[in-house]
Write a structure and sequence with these properties.
The protein is α+β, with helices and mostly antiparallel strands. Helices cover 17% and strands 39% of the residues.
């Protein structure tokens, strides 16, 4: 589990592409301090397993499912990436619950300055928008952000200068793709409610009949 608080910006050193998968070698520093093979590191919000490491980089495999659902397939040598280690049990919970399992992607449609803040507007699919609420949380390229505005096609976040400087958001341009992970609470609630409805005899007609 992650929190969406980015620890450092890494750099893609090598991408070894296979037919439907890839292997990434990522240059890093902070996330290597207590690294072990088999541990998880979120790369642009995608939970990846460390398969090997050196004093200045780590290697991780990316499977077909991950490439199809995220923007990792668009990376190339030299790309900057957001990095975060899995949260320790005694760590501070600075952001929100982030699993590192990407729901899909969005496209940056507008970037605008507002005094010391920067607004990013992201267009995405209805399947992702339905779980987004104003003032709720969303992970964008692994960054825990608060939704400031929402409409039928897009949402907007307002970023403070620190977040912009400490993440790859400062490199984003209109038209760029970002990884998106919805707040997991909404997805679980929807699933539980749909399951409960399927297993109950209580219907709208039943409630109306008995005065509800």
């Amino acid at each position: 589990m992650f929190t969406g608080i980015i620890e450092e910006i890494g750099k893609i050193l090598t991408i070894r592409k296979r037919k439907d998968s890839a292997e990434l070698v990522v240059q890093a520093c902070t996330v290597l301090e207590d690294i072990h093979v088999g541990e998880s590191i979120a790369v642009n919000g995608v939970c990846l397993t460390v398969t090997s490491f050196s004093q200045s980089s780590f290697t991780a495999d990316v499977m077909h499912e991950t490439l199809s659902r995220s923007s990792l397939g668009n990376l190339h040598t030299g790309c900057s990436v957001n990095l975060e280690r899995a949260m320790p049990a005694n760590g501070r919970f600075g952001g929100h619950i982030v699993s590192g399992h990407i729901d899909g992607t969005g496209k940056v449609t507008a970037i605008a300055k507002d005094d010391n803040a920067i607004w990013y507007t992201i267009k995405t699919s209805p399947s992702i928008l339905k779980y987004i609420v104003e003032k709720g949380s969303i992970a964008m390229d692994g960054i825990s952000l608060t939704v400031a505005k929402l409409d039928t096609e897009s949402f907007s976040v307002s970023i403070i200068p620190h977040t912009d400087a400490q993440t790859i958001l400062s490199e984003k341009r209109v038209g760029d793709t970002v990884n998106l992970e919805n707040d997991c609470i909404g997805k679980y609630v929807e699933h539980l409610m749909s399951t409960a409805q399927a297993n109950t005899n209580i219907t709208a007609e039943f409630l109306e009949k008995y005065g509800f």
